[in-house]
Each structure stands twice: as C-alpha cells, then as structure tokens.
Design a protein that fits this description.
With 375 residues, the protein is of the alpha+beta class. It has 11 helices and 5 strands; from the N terminus they run H-H-H-H-H-H-H-H-H-E-H-E-E-H-E-E.
Length: 375
C-alpha cells in the first residue's frame, strides 16, 4: 500500500502545532491564577504570540527561539505562571537544525532571566520567585527537548549518510560495469573488426594494382569496416570516459569547432549571455551534444557551414547547432544511435532536446539544460 498519500504536508503540520500550542498556553494561563485588566490582555497576547511564532520554526529556528523566550519572560512579568511550551518546541527545532551551542546559551540565559524577572515584577520572598520561575521553564523539560532535537538530528544525519553511501556504491558499480563492458567489447570485437578492415583494404589495393575492377561488395566491406572501427572506437571512449580522466566540458567546445573546420566545414562558435559556472554534468552533456551534432554534420549532412551557439540564461544553458545540409522537412533523416544517446543524456538532466530539419534545408539540434542554483 502506498502510504505516501496519507502524509501530512509540512505547512499544515506547522499550523497545527502552532495553533495547538497557542491554545494550550492560553487555556492554561486563563484557567489558572492570572492578573486582571491590561496585564491580563498583555499576557494573553504574549501567550498566543509565543505559540503562533512556531509557524516559522523551520525557516528561522533561531529567531523563533528568541521570540518564544522573550514571550515567556513577558507573560511571566505580566503575572502568568505557565510552562513555556512554545520555547521548548523552539529548542527542539533549533537543535534539530544544528544550532546546539546557540540554543544552549539562550536556554542558560533564559534560566537566569526568568528568576530575575520574577523578583522584579512579583511581590513576595525570593524563594517564591524562584519557584514561579521554575514553573515557567523546568530544567527537566528543557533537557528533554534538547535531547529530542539532538537525537532526531543525528538520526537524519545517519539517514542522509546512508543514502549518500548507497548512491556512491551504485555509481561505483555502474562505473565498474561500464569498464567491464568496454573491455569485453575491445577484446571480442576490436580485433576481428580490425582484421576485416585490413583484409578488405589489402584486397582493394591489390585489385587496383593489378588493374582489375574492384567488386562493389568488397568496396562496401571496406567502407563498413572503416565505419565500424570509428563507431567502436567512439563507443569505447564513451564507456571508458569516467571521472578518473579529465571530463570534456564547455571549455573544450572551441576545440570541437576547430576540428570541424579541419574536416572542411565552415564552423563558427557564438557564446551569448553572462558566462558562469555550471554543474559538471551539464557542461559534459553540452560538450557531447555539440560533438555528436558536428560529427553527424561532417559525415552525413553534406553541409558546408555549421554554427554552434552557447547561450547562458538565468536558469538554463541553451546549446544549438545548425547546418546547411541536405535535410529538409519532407526528407528528414532517420534518427540514429547518436541522436538517441544525445536525447537520453539531456533528459537524464531534466532538460529538453529538439533535433529536426530546418525550414528550407539543413538540420538543427537544440538542447536546453537546467542549471541548478546554489541557495
């Protein structure tokens, strides 16, 4: 059974806790001995404010700790002897957020301020004042709140560490499996394909030296051998491309453009927007998209020009590669493994990829990669 659907939203839980604590404080304060007149109104406002301040305990735990502590001092000065439940909840939240030292210092200060407040604003002997202060904030409840917050903080840290360990283990196993596949491919296919390629090229060379007509089948084998060698080499490089070697990223894209120019393309690179650091996975994927797009343009598009555009936007890195090849909207090339690989890389990062013929003729590849912002 999926229990996730019954989970209470955090905002609703915060409202429920704040309203409940405010009602508890008001009920306890007004049902017991309390002053009358303006002091009663002032104390009741502070009781309610101390409870409702807990609404912000997730966003600003230290601020809530200070507000609830001041409210406890205020309603004690007004003449209410009510356990500072709101401050205890704030202590729990602040310790859970990791503010142990500040919470301990604030609590010790409050334990000192409350008796002094009782001495200043209450009539009676000092012993009675200390008793009243203890009724507002008991040390046992304070220690229990502190311990509960610390216990949950440590449990959450252990859970996060366990999740991190699982992810690292899964990533390491995936890398090991990828390298294993690369070794198997290299051992099982590279040698045989190399033999086929060499034998076909020797046969073509011998036939041409003898002045004989080279059979079309032999030429097809030679072409297929060369193409298979290139594709296998590219596949092995991709499989072996892990974090142990320097990853190709945005700063290496100019090298791709220069390489495309050396292959006979009139390739240009345009960078727009304010340059900024992007996550390594985004830069790496952008490089692969440009690499695959320029490779397809040089091999299959019969193009003369290609333009690469990198656009740094507020929350997106946009990559676009256009060519003036033979593709048309009515005669779109069949998508191959390279395009499929590009799409999988982009979608894995939560981005979008559009690869299709341009209006008129030519082909365009457009990728939008989300860029996470550090808070």
């Amino acid at each position: 059974m999926d229990t996730g659907r019954f989970r209470v939203p955090a905002a609703a839980m915060d409202w429920a806790i704040a309203v409940s604590v405010a009602a508890l404080l008001l009920g306890s304060g007004l049902s017991g001995q309390h002053p009358a007149g303006q002091r009663e109104l002032f104390g009741a406002i502070l009781l309610a404010a101390g409870g409702l301040a807990l609404l912000a305990r997730r966003r600003a735990p230290l601020a809530v700790l200070a507000v609830t502590g001041l409210c406890a001092v205020g309603y004690e000065a007004a003449g209410f002897e009510v356990l500072a439940v709101s401050y205890l909840v704030a202590v729990y939240g602040a310790v859970r957020a990791g503010h142990r030292a500040l919470t301990a210092a604030a609590s010790v200060s409050l334990l000192v301020v409350l008796p002094l407040t009782a001495l200043l604003f209450r009539d009676g002997p000092a012993r009675e004042a200390f008793t009243q202060a203890r009724n507002v904030l008991e040390i046992a409840w304070l220690i229990a709140s502190f311990a509960a917050g610390e216990a949950l903080r440590q449990a959450e840290q252990r859970a996060d560490e366990a999740e991190r360990t699982r992810e690292e283990t899964a990533r390491r196993r995936a890398d090991e499996e990828r390298l294993h596949i690369a070794r198997e491919l290299h051992d099982s296919l590279t040698h045989q394909i190399s033999i086929i390629k060499v034998q076909s090229e020797v046969a073509v060379h011998v036939a041409r030296r003898r002045g004989e007509q080279v059979p079309e089948t032999l030429l097809a084998i030679q072409t297929a051998g060369r193409e298979a060698t290139r594709e296998l080499r590219a596949t092995l490089e991709a499989l072996r491309d892990d974090d142990t070697s320097p990853p190709q990223s945005l700063e290496h894209i100019p090298e791709l453009v220069e390489r495309a120019c050396s292959m006979g393309l009139d390739a240009t690179l345009t960078i727009e927007g304010q340059r900024q650091d992007v996550p390594a996975a985004v830069g790496r994927t952008a490089y692969r998209v440009v690499q695959e797009a320029l490779t397809n343009t040089a091999r299959h598009a019969c193009a003369t020009t290609a333009t690469v555009r990198i656009d740094y936007r507020p929350h997106v890195l946009a990559v676009q590669v256009d060519d003036d090849g033979k593709a048309t909207p009515d005669d779109a090339p069949a998508p191959g493994l390279g395009l499929l690989g590009m799409r999988e890389r982009v979608i894995a990062l939560g981005g979008r990829l559009r690869a299709q013929p341009r209006t008129g003729h030519g082909f365009t590849v457009q990728a939008e990669l989300p860029v996470e912002r550090a808070s």
